[in-house]
Amino acid sequence: MATSASMAQAIFASPSSTTPFHSRSSLPNLPLLPPSPTSLFKPSSKLQISGSRRSVPYRIKASSEDSSETSEVGEVFSGLKDKWDAIENKPMVVIYGGGAALGLWLSATVVDAINGVPVIPKFLELVGLGYTGWFIYRYLLFKSTRKELADDIEALKKKIIGSE
Questions:
Q1: Tell me, what DSSP letter sits at residue 48?
Q2: Is 43 in contact with 58 (CB distance < 8 Å)?
Q3: pTM, 2 dp
Q4: DSSP track, 92-133
Q5: What's the CA gap between 60 and 63, in Å, rounded?
Q6: Rounded CA gap, 80 and 93, in Å?
Q7: Which CA distances in Å does 110 have to 56, 75, 116?
Q8: Distance CA 149, CA 19 (A)
Q9: Which residues of 85-94 are buried (b: 16+ CB within 10 A; e: fewer)?
């Protein structure tokens, strides 16, 4: 009876009265984690976020020294806005964009499913290496074939742009 009472006392004892956690754990004794970087700084009581009890340990100061990046970003966005405003059939562009996103998601799903089959990824890797070797031999190894590849690329660019 004394044994069951001591077991009950050991089971229902508070954690502070028993051995430390790392010696009770079934895991091996691991070193403790270092303190987080935010705990190394003493928080400043000068800066308070409204509605929050947290304080900010550093100050952020805005500077206008590097305004060239912001102006370039503004130019890009204004250019995109101008192009979007110039489009007449906006619903069709949204449908094409959604279809492209759906196709990308579907292809990623198919590739992930194929990657789950044990033999197929290694086989496809061999096919890719073989094709890469053939492409290097066919188009990149000799000067005349490099020129042929450059001419093919230029013809494709003209075809896409519509000047041909």
A1: B
A2: no
A3: 0.37
A4: HHHHHHHHHHHHHHHHHHHHHHHHTSSSHHHHHHHHHHHHHH
A5: 10
A6: 14
A7: 47, 39, 10
A8: 73
A9: eeeeeeeeee
Q: Tell me the two tokens of residue 144.
A: 């005349």
Query: What CA–CA distance (Å, rounded) separates 111 from 59?
Result: 47
Specify the residue for token string 């010696």.
23
Task: State whether residue 28 is helix, strand or coil.
Answer: coil
Between CA 17 and CA 76 the distance in angstroms is 65
Chain-centroid distance, C-alpha 96: 25
- On whether the CB atoms of residues 121 and 115 are closer than 8 A, the answer is yes
pLDDT tens-digit series, residues 68-122: 566 788 888 888 899 889 989 999 999 999 999 999 999 999 989 988 888 888 8
Do residues 132 and 124 touch, judged by C-beta distance below 8 A? no
Q: Which amino acid is at 26?
A: S
